[in-house]
C-alpha cells in the first residue's frame, strides 16, 4: 500500500516538468490524481501514462490565472472523486528578462497573475473543499528565488517571495483545522523551461550549484511527496529548499 492510498490530489501544471513528476509520484503512491494544465495534449498524455502504469487519474483543463477556472477545477475534482485531500500548486512561468526599471507592465502583470494569484486561487478554493473534509495538504511551488534574487527577473522573484509568505500564513491560520501548507524551493531544474537556454547560460547556472549539476524533476517530486504525506504530519508553514546548495553560498 502506498503512502497516499485513498487520497485525492490535484497537480496544476501537471503536464510537464516538475508537475508531471509530482503527478507520477502521487499516483505511484496510491493517490487518485487530477492533472491540470492549459496544454490539453500534455495533460492527457500524463493521464494516459499514469493509467498505463496502473494508477488512477483524470485531466481537467484550467488556466490558473483565472479564478473561475480554478474554482471549477476544485469542484469538478470533488465531483469526480468525492473529496480533495492534496493540492500541489505548481503552475508557473518565467517571464521576460529585463532590469526592473525596464520591465514591461504587461509582463509584470502576467507573471504575477500566474505565479502568485494562481497559487492563491488554488489555495483559496482547496481550503474551502478541505474544510469540508476535515483536513488536507497544500504544497506550493516557490523557488530558490523565494529567498534570493534573480537579477533580470524581478516579477518572478517578487511572486516567489510572496508564495513563501502566503504559505506561511496559511500554515499559521489553518493548522488547527487539520490543513497543512508548505512551500518548496527548487534550484534550477532540468525541465522544458530551460530548453531554450544556451549552452553557456546553462553552464553558468550549473556552476551556481555546489553539487555540480542541475536538479531533476523527480528529486523535487520526492520532497513534494514527503510534504504531501502523513510522514510530514508535524510540518506546516515551512519553506523547504531542494537546490543543490545554490542558496548556501
Task: Write the topology of this structure.
Layout: E1 8-12, H1 17-28, E2 32-37, H2 40-52, E3 56-61, H3 67-81, E4 86-89, H4 105-133, E5 136-141, H5 154-174, E6 179-186, H6 199-207, H7 217-228, E7 239-242
Parallel strand pairs: 1-2, 1-4, 2-3, 4-5, 5-6, 6-7
Helix pairs in contact: 1-7, 3-4, 4-5
Question: What's the short story on this structure?
Answer:
The protein is an alpha/beta fold. The chain has helices spanning 17-28, 40-52, 67-81, 105-133, 154-174, 199-207, 217-228, and strands at residues 8-12, 32-37, 56-61, 86-89, 136-141, 179-186, 239-242.
What does this structure look like?
With about 250 residues, the protein is α/β, with parallel strands linked by helices. The chain has a single domain, classed as Rossmann fold. The protein has seven helices and seven strands; from the N terminus they run E-H-E-H-E-H-E-H-E-H-E-H-H-E. The chain has helices at about 15-30, 40-50, 65-80, 105-135, 155-175, 200-205, 215-230; strands spanning about 10, 30-35, 55-60, 85-90, 135-140, 180-185, 240. A seven-stranded parallel beta sheet has the order 3-2-1-4-5-6-7, sandwiched between helices. Helix 4 links the parallel strand 4 (about 85-90) and strand 5. Helix 1 crosses helix 7 (about 215-230), helix 3 (about 65-80) packs parallel to helix 4 and helix 4 (about 105-135) runs parallel beside helix 5. The model has no long low-confidence stretch (mean pLDDT about 95).
Amino acid at each position: 500500500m502506498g503512502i497516499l492510498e485513498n487520497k485525492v490530489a490535484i497537480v496544476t501544471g501537471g503536464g510537464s516538468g516538475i508537475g508531471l513528476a509530482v503527478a507520477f509520484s502521487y499516483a505511484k503512491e496510491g493517490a487518485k490524481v487530477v492533472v491540470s494544465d492549459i496544454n490539453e495534449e500534455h495533460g492527457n498524455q500524463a493521464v494516459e501514462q499514469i493509467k498505463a502504469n496502473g494508477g488512477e487519474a483524470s485531466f481537467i483543463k484550467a488556466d490558473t490565472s483565472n479564478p473561475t477556472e480554478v474554482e471549477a477545477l476544485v469542484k469538478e475534482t470533488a465531483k469526480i472523486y468525492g473529496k480533495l485531500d492534496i493540492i500541489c500548486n505548481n503552475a508557473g512561468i518565467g517571464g521576460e528578462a529585463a532590469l526592473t526599471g525596464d520591465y514591461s507592465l504587461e509582463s509584470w502583470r502576467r507573471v504575477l497573475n500566474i505565479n502568485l494569484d494562481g497559487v492563491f486561487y488554488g489555495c483559496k478554493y482547496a481550503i474551502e473543499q478541505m474544510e469540508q473534509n476535515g483536513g488536507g495538504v497544500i504544497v506550493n511551488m516557490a523557488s530558490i528565488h523565494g529567498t534570493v534574487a534573480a537579477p533580470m527577473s524581478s516579477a518572478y522573484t517578487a511572486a516567489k517571495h510572496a508564495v513563501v509568505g502566503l504559505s506561511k500564513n496559511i500554515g499559521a491560520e489553518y493548522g488547527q483545522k487539520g490543513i497543512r501548507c508548505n512551500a518548496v524551493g527548487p534550484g534550477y531544474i532540468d525541465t522544458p523551461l530551460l530548453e531554450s537556454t544556451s549552452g553557456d547560460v546553462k553552464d553558468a547556472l550549473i556552476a551556481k550549484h555546489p553539487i555540480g549539476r542541475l536538479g531533476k524533476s523527480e528529486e523535487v517530486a520526492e520532497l513534494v511527496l514527503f510534504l504531501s504525506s502523513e510522514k510530514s504530519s508535524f510540518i506546516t508553514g515551512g519553506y523547504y529548499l531542494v537546490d543543490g546548495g545554490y542558496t548556501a553560498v
